């Protein structure tokens, strides 16, 4: 019950659902009550927030402090295990295998495969539960790895972990202090590393999927228009900031 409530609360605090609720409430107040000023205020706040979080500079600056906290994985670093935290997928048979993963999941598995090639003896640990799909996220990772020439004997799948905390609890039982690369999205890495600090694990961060990238050239004016992509990236960052706050309050 607590897990479900946490998921619902986390989703409702994201920019699009939160602003949608504000807009809906504002419209009700504006057209169906005498509190028209309050309705206009809610609509105005929702509109400003939605546009703000859809801007490229905002999404970049929300993500960048999270993503730059840990450096990329050092190629000379030997590891015995490679943990890949789960993300989403849709196992649609009409779509190529690699395209069935979300952007985040695709970036994570590609980074894991790269590290595996640097450390051929390392064992891969894939996590990702079954949620709204017949296949687990861990199974999807395994299929991508197999397609890249990695045998199943080099993989362990954790398919019953529902969130990052449960993934890390199960991962920690397997790695037992061995040097381990942790692969997840760069913005997600600080929260994941914080959870691993409560264990005896020897973790080397291996961040993937950087979205808080500062352009090295001049961006055309249309690049500053609101975009659904940047709204999604802002949502990624806010999810991590809220998650970090939740962990701090709870601990």
TrEMBL record:
The chain crosses the membrane at residues 12-32, 41-59. CDD domains: YdcF-like. This is Uncharacterized SAM-binding protein YcdF (DUF218 family). Keywords: Membrane, Transmembrane, Transmembrane helix. One of its GO terms (biological process) is peptidoglycan metabolic process. Signal peptide: none annotated. Residues 80-243 form the DUF218 domain. GO terms for cellular component: plasma membrane. The keyword Ribosomal protein does not apply.
């Amino acid at each position: 019950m607590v897990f479900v409530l946490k998921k619902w609360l986390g989703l409702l605090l994201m920019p699009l659902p939160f602003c949608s609720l504000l807009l809906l409430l504002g419209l009700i107040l504006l057209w169906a009550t005498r509190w028209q000023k309050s309705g206009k205020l809610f609509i105005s706040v929702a509109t400003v927030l939605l546009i703000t979080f859809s801007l490229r500079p905002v999404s970049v600056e929300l993500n960048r402090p999270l993503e730059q906290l840990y450096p990329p994985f050092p190629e000379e670093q030997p590891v015995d295990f490679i943990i890949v935290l789960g993300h989403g997928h849709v196992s649609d048979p009409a779509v190529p295998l690699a395209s069935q993963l979300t952007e985040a999941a695709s970036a994570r598995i590609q980074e894991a495969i790269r590290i595996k090639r640097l450390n051929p003896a390392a064992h891969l640990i894939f996590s990702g539960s079954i949620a709204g799909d017949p296949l687990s996220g861990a199974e999807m990772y395994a299929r991508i790895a197999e397609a890249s020439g990695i045998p199943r004997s080099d993989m362990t799948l954790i398919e019953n972990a529902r969130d990052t905390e449960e993934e890390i609890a199960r991962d920690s039982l397997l790695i037992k202090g061995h040097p381990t690369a942790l692969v997840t999205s760069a913005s997600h890495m600080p929260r994941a590393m914080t959870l691993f600090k409560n264990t005896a694990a020897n973790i080397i961060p291996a961040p993937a999927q950087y979205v808080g990238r500062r352009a090295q050239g001049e961006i055309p004016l249309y690049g500053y228009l609101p975009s659904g992509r940047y709204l999604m990236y802002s949502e990624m960052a806010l999810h991590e900031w809220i998650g970090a706050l939740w962990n701090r309050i709870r601990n």
